[in-house]
Amino acid sequence: MNFQWYPGHMTKARRMMQENIKLIDVMVELVDARIPFSSKNPDIDQLARDKYRVLILNKTDMADPEVTEAWEAYYKNKNFYVAKVNSQRGEGIKEVRRLIQTACKEKKERDRKRGILNRPVRAMIAGIPNVGKSTFINSFAGKACAKTGNKPGVTKGKQWIKINKDVELLDTPGILWPKFEDQQVGLRLAFIGSIKEEILPTTEVALELIPFLIRQYPGVLADRYQVREQEDPHAVLDEIAVNRGCLTKGSQTDIDKAGKILLDDYRSVRLGRISLERPVEE
Questions:
Q1: DSSP 3-state assignment of 93?
Q2: Rounded to an integer, what distance in angstroms lies between the CA atom of residue 180 and that of residue 76?
Q3: For 70-114, what is each residue's pLDDT tens digit?
Q4: Domains in the chain, CATH or no CATH each
Q5: Which of 47, 207, 238, 280 pairs with 230 at a CA distance of 20 to 30 A?
Q6: How many degrees, rounded to 5, is the angle at CA 31 between CA 217 and CA 213?
Q7: Kind of pairing, strands 159-162 and 121-127?
Q8: In 91-182, which ranges are continuous DSSP H helix?
Q9: pLDDT by residue (tens digit) across 151-196?
């Protein structure tokens, strides 16, 4: 599979971020805890190279806890302030507030010496589509101030959000980057639904997910679908189709429907808390 997806509105969004970066003190970047490397936009590293950095491992309730701990250590080692967050339940939000203030401590001290008092810290919120930025912002602000949705592209333009007297947030649309050098990155983004479904070969994505699950989380597919975990992913998907009643009018197995069921079950955590990648020490 060859994933390339960079519609025009993402070019516009990146330009907007570039223009507004000078207005902010700290970059708060959300990544998906299931794929903390593949969901981290390398363009943001370039844009925010002179800013304080807070990295949020979001959706921790969907990821393997032990793997998430490893990712937290990995990014702390790279000089990020790191918080583990479940935005839906508000878990980790207080830690994010603390980290933003800690990251900007030197800057606030410089302001104080120059006689600038009570100026709020300005933070830009960034991340790829469908990483949960709007839900995070609503939880962070304690009110519904950003649109939320379970599909990419809900935030269309920038908006400043006053959290309290200490923090202002600049929300930005989710952006990917122009080219996936590693096609596995595109594939992992497809697994979690960060690339719009209309342009994805859903069945092919499901067929790629099956070997990974058998290798890294043996028994998960057998328990959920009562199938044999075998080398041929087509055979596994065919068995899922049979056991879930995914049949066409001629009683042929409908593997497209079975593939959608598998991906939906993964994205809804019905297969359990599964991380799709682990940190590799450099």
A1: helix
A2: 25
A3: 999 999 999 999 999 999 999 999 999 999 999 988 888 888 888
A4: 8-171 (3.40.50.300), 201-267 (1.10.1580.10)
A5: 280
A6: 15
A7: unpaired
A8: 93-103, 105-113, 133-141
A9: 444 444 556 788 878 888 888 777 776 566 677 888 898 899 887 6
